[in-house]
From TrEMBL:
Family: Belongs to the prohibitin family.
InterPro entries in the record: Band_7, Band_7/SPFH_dom_sf, Prohibitin
Name listed for the protein in its UniProt record: Prohibitin
Lineage, uppermost ranks: Eukaryota, Sar, Stramenopiles, Bigyra, Opalozoa
Localization: Mitochondrion inner membrane
A Pfam entry, by short name: Band_7
Domain Band positions: 33-194
Annotated segments matching region Disordered: 280-302
Residue ranges with Basic and acidic residues bias: 285-302
Annotated source species: Blastocystis sp. subtype 1 (strain ATCC 50177 / NandII)
Keyword Mitochondrion set for record: yes
């Protein structure tokens, strides 16, 4: 009797084992899943027996055992993210800085990233480390330096973000400062400073222009004095100089009238041709003096 019971128990065990194996085989053959990963995506497989596999599923088609395995897809393409943080500068000015970050997860450690952060790694990590780095870097600069040294500030933020992101399995591709907004008081102070600088530059230009005008006037006066001195010397040394100037002036007047569309008849007086040379004028003046002396009556000795 006991032997019969043992035989029946063994038969039941083998039946259950064979049924389970058959069911698993059926599920594997007929109800198995085929997964397809698009370009730019990777997968992490969770196994009900072994847990997370330390293997990253690449692009393409893959076989997945139903119920025992579950896949978690990751988008490994570069993802843009814009974050804004209100922080203080070294000179205690508040600035609202907006930062655009391009990042993606590290493919080599995706299983570890899934264990620690899950699928929404971007939401869990990026806001905290970006705010931390921004406050750390901005506190090293004055408010005016954030404007004049913007490129240097951006490079320093990127370097610190790369180091912090590496600790969480995140690769930072690029960082850019897209906006800097200061308080109203600081903005008004900057505008007033710019206006004052422009006024100072304008006043400097006016002073420089006055100096140049003064120099120009002095040079012009010196030139006119030199010209007058040279003309006087020429008239003294060469009596024909006045005659030459008379002829040149007459030529200029005649040329100007010739270009006119009207017909004009001028006398020699209008052309300055009646101007006498120095020798003629001197002779005439001496002759007039002699005639004036002859016309005066002799005074009586008595």
């Amino acid at each position: 009797m006991s032997k019969a019971v043992n035989v029946v128990g063994k038969v039941l065990k083998w039946s259950v084992g064979c049924g389970l194996v058959g069911w698993l085989g059926y599920e594997s053959l007929y109800n198995s899943k085929l997964l397809f990963f698009d370009s730019g995506h990777r997968g992490v497989i969770y196994n009900r027996i072994g847990g997370i596999k330390n293997k990253v599923i690449p692009e393409g088609t893959h076989f997945l055992i139903p119920w025992f395995e579950r896949v978690n897809k990751y988008d490994i393409r570069t993802q843009p993210r814009t974050m804004t943080s209100l922080t203080g500068t070294r000179d205690l000015q508040m600035v609202n800085i907006s930062l655009r970050v391009l990042c993606h997860p590290n493919i080599d450690i995706l299983p570890q990233t899934y264990k620690e952060l899950g699928l929404n790694w971007n939401e869990r990590v990026m806001p905290s480390i970006v705010n931390e780095v921004l406050k750390q870097v901005v506190a090293q600069f004055n408010a005016s330096a954030l404007l004049t040294q913007r490129e240097q500030v951006s490079r320093l933020i990127q370097r610190n973000l790369i180091e912090r992101g590496r600790e969480f399995g995140i690769i930072i591709d690029d960082v850019a400062i897209i906006d800097l907004a200061f308080g109203r008081e600081f903005t008004n102070a900057v505008e007033a400073k710019q206006v004052a600088q422009q006024e100072a530059e304008r006043a400097k230009y006016v002073v420089e222009q006055a100096k140049q005008d003064k120099k120009s006037t002095i040079i012009r006066a010196e030139g006119e004095a030199t010209s007058a001195r040279l003309i006087g010397e020429a008239m003294e040394n060469n009596p024909g100089f006045i005659e030459l100037r008379r002829i040149n002036t007459a030529k200029d007047i005649a040329a100007t009238i010739a270009r006119s569309n009207n017909r004009v008849y001028l006398t020699s007086d209008s052309l300055l041709l009646n101007i006498m040379s120095d020798s003629g004028a001197t002779e005439r003046m001496s002759q007039e003096k002699k005639e004036a002396v002859k016309e005066q009556p002799e005074k009586s000795m008595w």
